[in-house]
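Record type: monomer structure entry
Structure origin: computed from sequence
Chain ID: A
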Amino acid sequence: MTGRVDRIWTAPEGSATMESVDRVHALPGGIEGDRYFEGTGYYSPMDVCEVTFIAREDVDAIREATGIDLSDGRHRRNVVLAGADLDALVNARFRVGDAVFEGTRRRPPCRHVEQLAGETGVMSALKGRGGICADVIEEGDVSVGDEVELLEDLSFDGRGLVDAIRSRLE
């Protein structure tokens, strides 16, 4: 898999403006200094993503299709990846910088993102382009420019179960 970190964003507390940084330290629970790691995110503790990723190509496509420019961090995601297939990272372990993540699910947009962006249509524009959630499996630093490395596909396709059943029946 190709791809690299294009931008990194954090916010010190829920609803605070996202701040662009060059490097973060990820550890189980999230990113040091980010609102969800601190337990002060808008959706804490109900719907927490330790770290969120979004594709730069999706941010660009939203701007081209709608005129809404979210490149200033108003998408509210932590890590912007360029050239990475986010779908391949869901149900997978992957390395970014020194940290290892496990993609857990797609991250749908919400009305709160639109309210903070201060622009009508943001929630709709992010539908299908809202990024993914990931848990931190191994702590480490993540920096702008770091490459994305797919380590393991964790998707369950049923083949292993079928093989196990077949071998028990034989």
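Annotation 1: The domain at 4-169 is CATH 2.40.33.20 (M1 Pyruvate Kinase; Domain 3).
Annotation 2: The helical segments are 35-38, 56-66, 86-89, 111-117, 122-126, 159-169.
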